[in-house]
Every structure is written in C-alpha cells, then in structure tokens.
Input
Amino acid sequence: MQDVAYLSSAYLGPVQYYCKLYGFENIYIETAENYLKQTYRNRCTIAGANGPLSLSIPIEKPDTLKCLTRDIRISDHGNWQHLHWNALSSAYNTSPYFEYYTDDFIVFYEKRYDFLFDFNEQLRELVCELVDLHPIVHYTTDYLSEVANDFREAIRPKHPIEDTTFHPTPYYQIFSSRYGFIPNLSIVDLLFNTGPEGSLILRDSIRV
Output
C-alpha cells in the first residue's frame, strides 16, 4: 500500500477510483477546487440492458462563474432520485447481490440532500464499508496545483489520462453475453455483481 493520493469528489465513482481508495493509505479528497462540469463529480456510468448508461445529478447553477466543489447544491429538477433508482433497479435487479444491498442504497434516493459533496461522500463511506476498504480520508482546505499521485483530473468519463497502475480485471456482469465485459463502470456494477469479492477485483486491478 502506498502513502498518499489525491482524488476529486465522485458520484458512485468508477472502479478505477476505488482502486485508489484500496491502494493508498491516505486519501485527500479535493473540496477547494472550482467545480468542473461533465465529470464523475455528478455522474456515474452503469451497465443497462442497452449498454453503458450515464446517470447525472442535476445541480443548481452557481451565482458566479467559479464555485467551489464543496458549495455546489443539488437541484430537485426532474425528479432525478426517482429516475436514478429506477435505472439502478432495472439494470441490476437480477444481479447476484442487488437485493442484498438494496436497503443500504435506497435511502440515498428517498432523502433530500442539499450539497453534492455531502451526498457523494456519504455514498463513498457506505461503499467503502461494504467492500471493506479503510483508507484514512482527509479533505483539502486549500487548492494545490501540484501534488503527489494526483488523480483529481486523471479519472474522468471523457479523455481520461493514462493510468499505468490500473488494469481492470474482468468480473461477471449481467449483460456480458450481449456486450462483453465493460471495464471501469461505477463501483455499484462491481458491488451488485460480485458482492464481498469486489475487494479482490480491486486488488487484482492494481499494478505497481
């Protein structure tokens, strides 16, 4: 296990994100950056019946051009919690462990949350507990442009930066007979399909 890595906030982050939580003892999660759109900060990708499906949390438009990630508020627009839970249920209700974890996750789609960062962090804490991850998590108070093991912008949906330490290990997926193995989906894909063995997939996906 290495010492320190920096991550952005993430909504049910991808497997690569949780590999960092597995592989580094101390994790700094960025709160003092200016919020960036079209990133994993407010979206995740799951495997649906028609292929990869992106789920995005709507946010309230900030009053200024620049707004810190920790100050971003969730919008109630479009009944998004209902839509996200329906999408997760539809995609994974026949997976081996969905029913086992339903009660843990459904509460996040029934309770109202004000801030995106708080919502993401409470979900991350739950996932870490379920896959038996115990990183020491710190929250930044100032933004530093140069830090060691900086994955804040490397892990992103579009044009990710090459990460030579991440080699996704295939695991059972419900729709693999239709689409083959789809790597680096949201951590819930791994969790609902493999259950407690998900931590072994994370371990085997790390190359030092």
Q: What stands out?
A: The CA atoms of residues 108 and 179 lie 29 Å apart. The helical segments are 15-23, 80-92, 98-106, 116-130, 176-179, 187-194, 198-204.
